[in-house]
Amino acid sequence: MTENTIRIGIYPGSFDPLTYGHLNIIERAAKLFDRLVISIAVNNTKTPLFTPEERAAQIRHVIGGDSRIEVDYFSGLLVEYARRKGACAILRGLRAVSDFDYEFQMAHMNHKIGPEIETVFMMTGEDHFYVSSRLVKEVASLGGDVTGLVPDNVFVDLCKKYAALQKGVQK
Ligand code: ADP
To answer: What domains, with CATH codes, occur in the chain?
Structure first.
């Protein structure tokens, strides 16, 4: 197989933190592409709980040594980044109707800027349709149990992060 026939997919997102919902998409997408690049957005407007490096470490820990999956960072225009990576597609996950409006607009805007790069949507896994990083953080910050929603290493990181933040508040 020559270099330019290798199918590279970009899976961009905040991953703040990685959930089993993300992981389900990653595992399924890895079968569709020769290489999958999980791309952590570093300059979006959201204030993250975890640093980009912490998020990358969480993802790397879970995907282990799969050489077909890369963990990377991106900032700026996603389409430009996808071009630089030689990707043929941007992968996004879809949960509910509420995801659709934004994703629909973004896919069309990206198509306008980079018509050669397709946006591919994967429907959420049936056990993960209600899982979002935002809700996981909300529940964990209130002391709720998020076991089963995030990988074990992320669970430990969430406990540590909120314990540290709590300590900071009490000082
Ligand atoms: P972003 O800030 O780009 O939305 P997220 O980390 O929240 O970053 O999500 C990254 C991608 O993963 C998005 O396409 C989102 O729809 C998808 N995603 C997040 N959670 C799930 C889930 N539970 N099931 C399927 N897709 C999901």
So the answer is: 8-129 (3.40.50.620)
